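pinned: reference chain
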Amino acid sequence: MEPITAIAAAEIVKIAFQEFAKSGAGELAKKSVGGAIDLIKNLRDKIKAKFQGDERVEKALIEVEQGNSEALGKVAKYLDIELDEDEVFAKEVRQIAQQIINIQNQNNSSREYNNYGRDQINIENIQGNPRIGGS
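pinned: its structure tokens
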């Protein structure tokens, strides 16, 4: 497991904003973040609060939330500076990011698909006559 300090600003910004920029915080976002939606919102809120009053960063944050993926890099640069200057903030943000990564890794590793035998049914999307076994 990586130490908390190893999480870079770019990765934190990606965790906090990219999924929402891609999927608009709808049902897809909830599934894609692996149940860590409250932690992601908390992370985003901490980052926004840190930069409140800084017009350049606020503008970049708005661009990210509007789906501008290039603005992620701008926010990452600003965050990188803050992580270097404010140790308490850096520790809090990195801990939240690590929790999110752990939850997502746990959700991804718990999905095990075994295909034993020839008769497989997708129970989420049953079509036709789902007859199991024999002819």
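why pinned: Residues 120 and 132 are 8 Å apart (CA to CA). Residues 4-104 form one domain.
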